[in-house]
């Protein structure tokens, strides 16, 4: 019978605790949840049928909610929604084949949660502010190219040059903000990943892996960053299970 894998989890001496918790939980469509165990690790599985499973927002949220509840009591590696294997025996073989990588990743995220931080901006206001600041500091403007004078290409060249200079200034500014974030994260010893200029409104999209007991310290650090950059909006989310810090490919 097909089994859907919800998460891989460290049980060690807590397999009885996990089994008891799963008795009080239900999977998607009300199916029972149980485990397939191997030497201190387990796959939490449900008897969902792949052909009957509806891939909609409600089911995806229910799936995430199950993982989130388990993450508050156990170290785990979330699986992607819709991860099926044909039988319990197949799952046992998968655990055996991937045991070393699974164990390493579980150790990496042990006692930690994932947090997200998005830094929002009004891009037009930010660009205008950066240009004014740069012109004030350098005493020059970003509007003209002295090398191109009475030419039919002058407007085109100057527009391209202005856009290129502005892009460089924006990248430099983003790097300054990231450096400030890193200074705070270094104090908290958080692992992190950054995506620069994810959209016109999102200047930085980042995720952190942080010890569970340091949430309040992280909130305080974000408040400091907000005061440093009042023209930006720092939005923190989490804690979440460590979705983005699992570095293994199940074979």
Question: Which descriptors apply to this entry?
Answer:
251 residues; alpha+beta; 2 domains; 44% helix; elongated
Q: How are the secondary structure elements laid out?
A:
Elements: E1 3-10, H1 15-23, E2 33-38, E3 41-46, H2 57-71, E4 76-78, E5 84-85, H3 88-97, H4 99-109, E6 112-120, H5 123-138, H6 154-188, E7 191-196, E8 202-211, H7 215-228, E9 233-240
Antiparallel strand pairs: 1-3, 1-4, 1-5, 2-3, 6-8, 6-9, 7-8
Helix pairs in contact: 5-6, 6-7
Written overview of the protein:
The protein has 251 residues and is α+β, with helices and mostly antiparallel strands. The protein has 2 domains: 108 residues; 133 residues. The strands form 2 sheets. Strands 1, 2, 3, 4 and 5 form a 5-stranded antiparallel β-sheet that branches. The chain has a 4-stranded antiparallel β-sheet with strand order 7-8-6-9, covered by helices on one side.
Fraction of helical residues: 40-55%
- Contiguous helical run count: 7
Strand content: 15-25%
Estimate the mean pLDDT confidence. Answer: 86
User: How does the overall form come out from the CA principal axes?
Assistant: elongated
Radius of gyration: 25 Å
Low-confidence stretches: none
- Distance from first to last alpha carbon: 20 Å
Largest sheet: 5 strands, antiparallel
Question: Total strand count, please?
Answer: 9
Summary?
The chain is built from seven helices and nine strands. It is α+β, with helices and mostly antiparallel strands and 251 residues long.
């Amino acid at each position: 019978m097909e089994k859907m894998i919800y998460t891989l989890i460290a049980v060690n001496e807590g397999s009885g605790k996990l089994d008891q918790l799963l008795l009080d939980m239900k999977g998607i469509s009300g199916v029972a949840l149980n485990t397939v165990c191997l030497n201190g690790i387990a796959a939490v599985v449900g008897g969902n049928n792949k052909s009957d499973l509806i891939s909609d927002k409600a089911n995806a949220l229910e799936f995430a909610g199950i993982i989130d509840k388990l993450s508050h009591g156990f170290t785990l590696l979330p699986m992607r929604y819709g991860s099926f294997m044909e039988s319990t025996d197949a799952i046992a073989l998968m655990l055996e084949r991937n045991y070393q990588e699974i164990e390493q990743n579980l150790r990496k995220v042990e006692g930690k949660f994932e947090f997200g931080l998005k830094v929002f901006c009004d891009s037009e206001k930010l660009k205008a502010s950066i240009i004014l600041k740069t012109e004030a500091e350098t005493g020059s403007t970003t509007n003209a190219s002295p090398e191109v004078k009475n030419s039919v290409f002058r407007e085109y060249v100057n527009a391209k040059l202005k856009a290129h200079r502005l892009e460089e200034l924006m990248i430099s500014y983003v790097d300054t903000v990231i450096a400030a974030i890193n200074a705070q994260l270094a104090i908290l010893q958080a692992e992190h990943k950054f995506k620069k200029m994810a959209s016109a409104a999102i200047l930085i999209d980042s995720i952190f892996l942080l010890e569970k007991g340091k949430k309040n310290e992280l909130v305080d650090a974000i408040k400091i960053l907000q005061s440093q950059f009042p023209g930006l909006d720092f939005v923190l989310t989490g804690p979440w299970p460590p979705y983005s810090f699992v570095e293994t490919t199940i074979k």
